[in-house]
Amino acid sequence: EAIEKGGYDHFMQKEVFEQPESIANCMRGRLVLEKGELVLGGINEYSQSLIHAKKITLLGCGTSWHAGLVAEYLFEDICRIPVEVEYASEFRYRNPIINEGDVFIAISQSGETADTLAAIELAKSKGAIVFGVVNVVGSSIARETHEGAYLHAGPEIGVASTKAFTAQVTVLSMIAIKMGLLRGTISQSQFQLLISELNQIPKKVATALKNNDQIEALAEIYKDAQNFLYLGRGNNFPVALEGALKLKEISYIHAEGYPAAEMKHGPIALIDEDMPVVFIATQDDSYEKIVSNIQEVKSRKGKVIAIVTEGDILASSMADYSIEIPKSHYVVTPLLSVIPLQLLSYHIALKRGCNVDQPRNLAKSVTVE
Ligand code: G6P
């Protein structure tokens, strides 16, 4: 096992630190920057149904569902296709409306999640076309779907999903960008810009990981908190959900993720000097609004940890602590903003003496209902 961990103390730690490489592997042979091409070899015969889709339904559970939520923003923004993101477990039992030729994308690390598999079978039985975004080659979901794109992230052993999430978001981003070009909803130059932004992600993730020591020190400060709130807007809202899930899963601290603007409809009542609030406050169109949300928390004496774009001044000056990530295009920011949240949960869990790789009550793959 020590050999498998490759010098790291835990699988989760190894998998978090592997992300520059796993994301690069996920794009290898697919992003051909010199030719300005994006090749998805696994999506062939059914590519027309994807390109001409009137709606796409994304299916998943847990972290894979969060990757679907990130993709919802991208498909709608880049491809102008309406998207629904469904918990597979809810979808399958509510007599969903599925028509012949409808398009689905099932997202799964293991490819064995029972609810996702059953939802795929249901969709197929009504004549839908189902694509898979799966890590494990030859898994049940990979076999059941019509076509798809593998993550190529390598084995993920830690129960809390980390590198599979970034690979899922990378694959879904590649599909969205490619479809945007083919549908004519983005121009050739926007396409070039987006693929070059994706191409820079592995290097930028490596930079984001350099804040590990700073995050470990933060974990020492907040390790005894009883609750955490994670807030983000736009495509960083699902990242807030994912940050909260990571903390819950491995440290057993109660955490909630919320869209920052929804805070005033409930969570704001929880804020006092004992409540750490993690904001994803990167510099994009919603930056000013996030800054005013930070202000609202500070005026109620909440403790603010802000994930900010490098060189940020305003949000950082208001926050108790800030963690920088490299500047990037809005579309690819979730691939960077999730990194400090993974590290924060890892360090807090360790300091609380938790088993980060095998948290209580959780399974890596839920193959029964
Ligand atoms: C379990 C795992 C999660 C994972 C979820 C979905 O709950 O602990 O990490 O996100 O299942 O699994 P899948 O393999 O379908 O992505």
From TrEMBL:
Enzyme class: transferase
Hydrolase in keyword set: no
Main location: cytoplasm
Enzyme Commission number(s) from the entry: 2.6.1.16
Domain called SIS: residue spans: 46-185, 218-359
Keywords: Aminotransferase, Cytoplasm, Glutamine amidotransferase, Repeat, Transferase
Domain of life, source organism: Bacteria
Keyword Repeat: yes
Free-text function comment from the UniProt entry: Catalyzes the first step in hexosamine metabolism, converting fructose-6P into glucosamine-6P using glutamine as a nitrogen source.
UniProt subunit comment: Homodimer.
Protein name: Glutamine--fructose-6-phosphate aminotransferase [isomerizing]
Full-sequence portion shown in this chain: 246 to 614 of 614
